[in-house]
Amino acid sequence: MKNFYRENQNLSLCGLNYKLCPMFIGSYCGGCGNGNQACSIARCGMSKGVEYCFACKNYPCEKYDGFDETDSFITHAHRKNDFEQAQTKGLKQYNSIQQYKEKFLKKLLAEYNDGRKKSFFCLAVNLLDAEELKSIEEIISSESDLNAMLPKEKSKFVSELFLAAAEKKGICLKLRRKDRRD
Question: What is the pTM of this model?
Answer without folding.
Answer: 0.87
